[in-house]
User: Which sequence fits this backbone?
């Protein structure tokens, strides 16, 4: 360090050195940003002008006008009425609904399977833990697309024709044309029961909130779980009984070359569902296992010391803390499942990508088709991650902002 | 922090001399044999009644499933047959399919008499990977080794010099193609991902917004749509007359996709660098790039290694999606081998073969990532 020199008696305070604006931090930041933005804009305009020139030379119209036109292709399974005479827009909506269907069913089943496998890997029972580990370690490391092909081949080539259908349970038929299960024949009573179920769920939610407030005020515990269970099971049962308790079953029966009636899972849907659930389940299992392991052992012991039973320790102490760790990676697995459902195109399940792909091939409007696919997935992804972030904030530790 | 020295205390000091009071103390049975097979089984399989029931259920499941599986895979399997009819006659697995088709599955449409070239390239690649796995070898010469390895691999695959016949990329296929997609994808995506991660952490709003926009856009859409975009739209993006081959188009899609995901892994590493490191670098008067390259990135990348390896694994598996845009990777060749009608029923064998190769690579990488995580943790614990 140098000693401070006494100022010369006639020196005026030194004027701040003039720095050129491009050498200043702020000025430089603006300069860099202008350069970057200009580069991106130039690149984009170059690509767009090329694209327009190419499209013009190939006589492909631009714009989304084609959505109004008649699609002219059939869709093998649709949740809403659809015929080839409908517009491309309606075909895409059918595809989107199929994507959402597989996403909802896949997420629900993968969560159940993954949670079970994750807990099983921590089981004190050696055999259970090893079986769960075998499942997780084998399927996790094989591409999901290969698994989809495998399941699809297994169903379409491994299962017998409808005439020799496998019949593992009464009324359940496994054939290479799909999996058939009996369903209760539709009756207005089920509408009533569904309404009763909705009422019961709402009532349970209200009761839980009230019970918690009362517990905080008075310390008395309301057996919320039992009352809720009674409501959710009981009310729909009562409604069903009151409406005359219809018990007709719509069972699949062999007519000609295929089964009629009952519920049918097409080979494509079944293969996609099994493949996605089995694959995503392995990742969820690891997340659940990691989440539970991350809760310190002292928490379990402290819960025991408070005199809580094992089940209560798990439900009141371990799970709420584990959930905080589990939810963020679980969200990204849900998003992965939704994005992986686009592999449906490889086995012919008419999801959004598959329908859009057909539309692209028929109209040649690749840019618009891909833009639609991307916009839809982006919307779904962003809304789910928004929802899960909100949930995550709700269960996060108060005061711990990170 | 100094701890009081721990002295060895003889156990006898704590032994109670007086007789136990009735009702407070119960004679416990001596601990059951530990260490023996029976003791282990009792502790791990039959510790309680529900546990025993679960064990019995699992054992029953295994008893039902395993013997037919062994019967199918080993006992009644056909190991070698030139004619698929022999397989059809047998009850078991048709490993003869692998015998007949393994060269097609492994190397695709590559000229048959030249198969030693992709084989050698794969072997070289695997050796290079094995060498790079040892942290002791993380030295500058490793980069040189990789440049040489990739150069020799490219030479072997393409040929056209040294008396090797030229093989165009359209004929590449199978395992080499899968490894090329994965390796080139990772190598090209990595620098892009660092730029994106730095951009996302930048204080310049325009740079930040562009990076976030790109990363979230790519992460929000499925890989298929990116591959479609690369395969359909890249030809539209380029001026008329300029063509790009299919392999390069697929690589562009894979690189863009991987870069966005890797960027998030790198950002995780950047975020875990303590503020003091940035401030110390500033205090030394380092410029932004000096600070980033000399101080921040070496630490951040080290922390980010496990998530980066995990990203490698998922990307390696994701290369199988190129089947949808018509490239002949390992999955495509395994599927195409089945289009030969007489071999059609033996899809399980073909998919199992390809699946096992994918599994071996992915499993090795995931174990390696665990090893690294433990090693890095051990390094961090010193602090």
Assistant:
């Amino acid at each position: 360090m140098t000693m401070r020199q006494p100022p010369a008696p006639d020196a005026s305070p030194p004027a701040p050195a003039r720095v050129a604006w491009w050498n200043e931090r702020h000025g430089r930041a603006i300069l860099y940003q202008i350069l970057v933005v200009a580069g991106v804009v130039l690149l984009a305009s170059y690509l767009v002008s090329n694209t327009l020139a190419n499209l013009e030379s190939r006589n492909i119209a631009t714009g989304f006008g084609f959505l109004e036109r008649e699609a002219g292709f059939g869709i093998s399974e649709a949740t809403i009425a659809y015929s080839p005479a409908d517009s491309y827009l309606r075909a895409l909506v059918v595809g989107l609904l199929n994507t959402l269907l597989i996403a909802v069913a896949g997420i629900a089943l993968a969560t159940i399977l993954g949670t079970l496998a994750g807990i099983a890997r921590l089981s004190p029972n050696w055999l259970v833990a090893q079986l769960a580990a075998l499942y997780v370690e084998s399927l996790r490391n094989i591409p999901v697309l290969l698994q989809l092909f495998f399941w699809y081949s297994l169903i379409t080539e491994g299962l017998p024709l409808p005439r020799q259908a496998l019949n593992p349970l009464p009324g359940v038929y496994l054939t290479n044309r799909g999996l058939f299960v009996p369903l209760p024949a539709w009756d207005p009573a089920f509408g009533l029961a569904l309404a009763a179920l909705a009422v019961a769920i709402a009532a349970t939610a209200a009761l839980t909130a009230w019970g918690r407030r009362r517990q905080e005020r008075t310390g008395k515990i309301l057996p919320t779980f039992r009352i809720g269970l009674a409501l959710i099971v009981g009310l729909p049962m009562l409604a069903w009984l009151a409406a005359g308790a219809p018990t007709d079953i719509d069972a699949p029966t062999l007519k000609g070359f295929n089964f009629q009636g009952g519920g049918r899972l097409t080979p494509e849907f079944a293969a996609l569902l099994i493949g996605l659930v089995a694959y995503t389940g392995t990742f969820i299992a690891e997340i659940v296992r990691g989440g539970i392991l991350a809760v310190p052992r002292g928490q379990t012991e402290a819960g025991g010391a408070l005199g809580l039973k094992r089940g209560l320790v798990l439900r009141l102490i371990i799970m709420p803390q584990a959930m905080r760790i589990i939810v963020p990676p679980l969200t990204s697995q849900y998003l992965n499942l939704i994005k992986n459902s686009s592999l449906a195109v490889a086995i012919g399940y008419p999801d959004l990508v598959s329908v859009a792909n057909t539309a692209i091939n028929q109209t040649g409007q690749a840019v618009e088709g891909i833009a639609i696919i991307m916009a839809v997935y982006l919307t779904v992804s962003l809304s789910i991650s928004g929802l899960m972030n909100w949930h995550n904030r709700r269960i996060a530790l108060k005061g711990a902002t990170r | 922090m100094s701890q009081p020295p721990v002295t060895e205390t003889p156990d006898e000091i704590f032994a109670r001399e007086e007789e136990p009071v009735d009702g407070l103390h119960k004679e416990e049975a001596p601990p059951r044999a530990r260490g023996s097979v029976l003791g282990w089984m009792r502790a791990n399989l039959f510790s309680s009644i529900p546990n025993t029931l679960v064990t019995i259920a699992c054992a029953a499941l295994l008893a039902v499933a395993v013997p037919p599986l062994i019967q199918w895979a080993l006992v009644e399997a056909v190991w070698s047959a030139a004619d698929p009819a022999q397989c059809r006659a047998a009850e078991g697995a048709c490993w003869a399919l692998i015998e007949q088709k393994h060269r097609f599955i492994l190397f695709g449409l590559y000229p048959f008499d030249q198969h030693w070239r992709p084989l050698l390239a794969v072997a070289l690649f695997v050796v290079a990977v094995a060498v790079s796995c040892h942290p002791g070898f993380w030295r500058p010469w490793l980069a040189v080794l990789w440049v040489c390895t990739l150069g020799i691999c490219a030479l072997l695959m393409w040929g056209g010099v040294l008396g090797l016949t030229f093989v165009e990329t359209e004929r590449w296929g199978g395992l080499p193609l899968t490894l090329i997609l994965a390796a080139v994808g990772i190598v090209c995506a990595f620098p892009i991902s660092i730029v994106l991660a730095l951009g996302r952490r930048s204080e310049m709003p325009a740079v930040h917004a562009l990076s976030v926009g790109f990363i979230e856009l790519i992460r929000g859409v499925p890989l298929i749509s990116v591959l479609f975009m690369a395969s359909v739209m890249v030809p539209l993006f380029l001026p008329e007359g300029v063509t790009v081959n299919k392999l390069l188009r697929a690589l562009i899609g894979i690189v863009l996709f991987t870069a966005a995901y890797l960027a998030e892994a790198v950002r995780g590493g950047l975020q875990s660098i303590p503020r003091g490191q940035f401030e110390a670098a500033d205090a030394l008067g380092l410029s932004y790039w000096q600070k980033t390259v000399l101080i921040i990135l070496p630490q951040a990348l080290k922390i980010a290694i496990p998530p980066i390896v995990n990203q490698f694994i998922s990307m390696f598996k994701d290369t199988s999606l190129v089947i949808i845009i018509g490239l002949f990777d390992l999955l495509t060749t395994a599927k195409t081998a089945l289009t030969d009608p007489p071999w059609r029923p033996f899809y399980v064998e073909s998919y199992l073969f390809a699946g096992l190769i994918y599994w071996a690579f992915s499993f090795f990488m995931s174990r390696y990532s665990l090893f690294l995580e433990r090693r890095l943790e051990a390094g961090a614990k010193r602090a």
